[in-house]
What we know:
The complex is a heterodimer of chains A (974) and B (85).
Chain A: E1 14-23, E2 26-32, H1 36-42, E3 49-50, E4 57-58, E5 71-74, E6 77-81, E7 92-95, H2 106-109, H3 118-121, H4 123-127, H5 129-141, E8 158-163, E9 167-170, H6 174-185, E10 190-193, H7 208-221, E11 227-230, E12 233-238, E13 244-249, E14 258-263, E15 267-270, E16 274-276, E17 289-290, H8 292-300, E18 309-314, H9 318-328, E19 332-338, H10 347-355, E20 360-361, E21 364-370, E22 377-382, E23 389-392, E24 395-399, E25 402-404, H11 407-411, E26 416-419, E27 424-427, E28 446-448, H12 458-475, H13 481-493, E29 514-516, E30 521-522, H14 523-531, H15 537-544, H16 557-567, H17 569-572, H18 589-593, H19 606-611, E31 615-619, E32 622-627, H20 631-640, E33 642-646, E34 651-656, H21 660-667, E35 685-690, E36 696-706, E37 709-714, H22 722-729, E38 737-740, E39 745-751, H23 755-760, E40 777-782, E41 785-792, E42 799-805, H24 809-820, E43 825-828, H25 830-839, H26 874-880, E44 888-895, E45 905-908, E46 911-922, E47 927-934, E48 945-950, E49 953-960, H27 970-973
Parallel strand pairs in A: 1-7, 8-14, 9-10, 9-15, 10-11, 15-28, 17-24, 18-19, 18-24, 19-20, 33-43
Antiparallel strand pairs in A: 1-2, 3-4, 5-6, 5-7, 12-13, 13-14, 16-25, 21-22, 22-23, 26-27, 29-30, 31-32, 33-39, 34-37, 34-38, 35-36, 36-37, 39-42, 40-41, 41-42, 44-47, 44-49, 45-46, 45-48, 46-47, 48-49
Chain B: E1 4-7, E2 11-14, E3 18-23, H1 34-42, E4 50-57, E5 62-69, E6 74-80
Antiparallel strand pairs in B: 1-2, 3-4, 4-5, 5-6
Amino acid sequence: MSRRLAETKTNVIDRARRITIDYAGKALSAFAGDSVAAALHAAGIRTMSASFKYHRPRGLMELGVQAADPLMAVNDRFNVRIARTPVAEGMRIEPQSPRKWDIYALADRVPGMLPVGFYYKNKLLHQYRKVWDQAREIMRRAPGNLGQVGALTHTPHFEAVHLTPELLVVGGGLAGMEAARVGAEAGIRVVLVEAEAWLGGFHAFQGAEDLARIEPLRQALAGFDNLTLLTDTTASIAYPDGLFMCVQACGNNDPCAERTWLIRPRAVVFATGAMDRPLIFGNNDRPGVMLPQTAQRLMHLYALAPAARVLLAGGDDTLYRIARDLTANGVAVAGLADSRPERAAQASLRDALVTTGVPVWNSSTIITAKGQKDVTGAVVARIGEKNGRELACTGIIAASGRTPLLKLAAQAELPIVFNPQYGFHQVLPPNANLNANPNLKLVPHLAVAGRVNGQQDSEAIRAEGRLAAATVLSALGLQMTEATRKAEETLQRTPEIVPNPPQVRAVTRSARRFICTGNDVTEKDIDQALAEGFSHLEMLKRYTTATMGAEQGTLSQANFLDYLAFKRPAAMGAQKINTPRPPLTGLSLGALAAGHHDQPRVTPLHQAQCARGAQLVRTGPWSRVDHFGNPEAESLALHQSAVLLDVSTLGKFRIFGPHAKDWLNLINTRPVNGAMGALAPNRVRYMAACNEEGVVIDDGVVIMLAQDDYYFTTSTARAGSVMSWYQRFRQPKWQAWLVNLTEARAGMNLAGPGAQAILSELTPTDVSSRNLPFMGWLAADVAGIPCYILRLGFLGERSYEIHCPASQAAGLYARLMEVGRPHNLKSAGLETQFICRLEKGHILPGLDADGNTTMFEAHFDWLWNETGEDCIGAPMLRQLKDQPHKKQIIAFRIHGRVALTDGNLVLKNGKRMGYATSVRYSPQLNQTIGLALVEPDADFVAGARVALWLNGREIAAECINPPFYDPEGERMKQ
Amino acid sequence: MGFLIPCPNCGPRDVYEFKFGGECKDTPAVNATLKELRHYFYFNRNVAGEHEESWYHDACESWLLIRRNTLSNTVIASRRLLEDL
Lengths: 974, 85
């Protein structure tokens, strides 16, 4: 248990609010405001996960905005970044790594057991299929730090919000706050996103003096209506077109788990800050080794000592400040190894430290950390020397300078180059000379400011923030000359940027020196890959898997590039960065899916049918009625009495105007006038549409409401694309209008021998075959509702398709069911329609005929006349007319019920010929009937036997000429 | 991938509101040969640079003709397919 340090203004914990969390079944006490990682550190837990490959114990290396590891399961959600998750009362936290005996940890003890690319090199793995199958499964389970997917106890809620400000500022540190203020004062809409719960960035955890610099800015920003401040929000993805996806962690009192802010600004200031660059030494991954900023966060935000006895190593003045803060807080400091020579450090800082009795060694570094599970000590030596002295310590705070956080700027395609003078990467400044880099481009409305540019002086950081905002806003056309001039003047007066110290190289290599802790890649692994001939950055990355762990290069990329440049100065000295890929940190799938809710469409009869016990099925965008309990009984009702079917999902359109005819004739293969006869006013015409490749894409019917005024239906699947398809081929100067009535009108099909009697009870109009014959239509009032009634033959029995206004459909449905009761009228759904249309052998384009089946192969060619007007697809149809068929649709039947389904194969002498496209049992015929799409064969003729493959054996069926039921169509026409 | 398309009816909109209609080609003649048809269906110029293509905007039910640089995804010009409407 670690004692909390004395309270200071920088603390974010609320000592008045104790919170109890559950860690691996044990109750731990924390304060409100703690992160899970801080709470565990406070409880004395140092080992928090096992590493990816070697299962080495790992602790808290990094707590910053992009910290990935350690990952734990929090409230059953796995792979949660505990460094970034605040505690909540009753929170359940489970470590994801093996806790006791761990066989995979052997990999760390046996030298050379898992060399780079071991799964390519081990011949045994590839020689036998079974060995590989097993080895692959073992390798998949092997990673020490990744969790198991499990069911969540509750479904988290996610939402998405779109914003379109003029200026987006990423990062709420000093630079970001200044930039946001410049924008807000200019009167434009500004959005400032900050990953922490507070503003201030780096300066929020440096001590009281730096906090005082932030306070006035925090207050100033609170006073703007045109500034949207998003805290707890990480800018995760910068799309090259200028869209930013920022994910907000919503906290415990919000019904939403995460909120996705989709921000499309016109100008952006990246003030993303910098993190520490890890120092490389032996066992530099042991629990207890941490970065300077982690130590500062623990001390200043959570009032926690990083360790009981601390050793510091690195090459910049920050370490002296941390040592000062540690001693002020009563933490023992074992010493400070400064890689720089004497007098490189600021004299006042050094002297202050030395007077408190802390030893400082110049031109020195840590060679290796000691201890197996925790740090127990370290060997400190002069740079270049093999031997040093061993010192006892329980914590090591080490860094070799800093790394600007450029990932987001890189995603936005800002040009990023290595600056050898400073020893870190930078965004190319706006006044850069591009002659040396013709591939790079400057983007005038994007700018970077502050620590991400390498600045460390607070005045310089603030001036850069103002300058960056002024620069991008003047690119938008705002008058910013004065602000630009002032900021530039301030920058002239501020100190020069301090370069990074060079990374310390190994003299001997007795312990593993990790370049990438995320995926366990050491210097030795990279040496080996180079020795094997890998010479390209992206290949080296993939082969060694360096930078490819959960941290995605945040910690490791700078050292990886630096080490490659050191080993191959000629080829990789320029330290070109890897292709930057989003997201910045791991994202939950919910955050990506936010806003994309599944909203199935329902018909106007949906409620009425559900009340009658409808079973629903999802078809494309629609939630449709599949059946009412027994689709086969419902299909028998169709043949024996009557059924009522909802056909409102059909596309329904009105097309009118002097050129309506021409438009219809262009899209559909069967014209409404001309070569195949003019459509009579009281007749229904069946028609089909082809695409340009001669494939049937749709079928439906058309009626003429009045002169130059038509009403037509399309298939359900096609309804959504009719508008764009018709508009695409519309000719200039045409006087015609197309109106989508799919939502406005409902349709229901009253079918069966009793249909006429039922309908007659509700309409004064004569609906007998004398007045309304097969393929005829009329307009009539049914139950007082104005309807079009169409006599169609889709289902094999006499049927009336009734189209009425959508708003009155439920009432009409209820009346029909009511008067139909004495006639044994049943409700039916899609499945009954499927059985009955199959009995008639009707082909459904898209199901029984696929996208490669031509109109001729699908038997729709009777709907096209070569000599008629030209329609879409006509040039291709002319070509296909005389071509041999490459496909054939056959119909087959088997007596009784057989477990065949759609998709079963059709065979001939053991050879696969095609597959069944629709198969159902017809209770009316007591046959299993189906259609199949097959290669043409002379044997597939009526009466012949055809073999189908079912559950490992062939079963025989009989080929027939459809329809299966009522071949002459007497029943539907009568 | 993502970019904005300036719709003449609706203003600049996210590309995901639109449906791609392919690069602009000459419609084949009524009596086109199989070879000409094949070329029309399956062959694209795939210009690396500026070219003309069609997009359908679901929101306003309009076909647009767009001039786009395929290297940078910048839309240089856009207009309705049938300007007389």
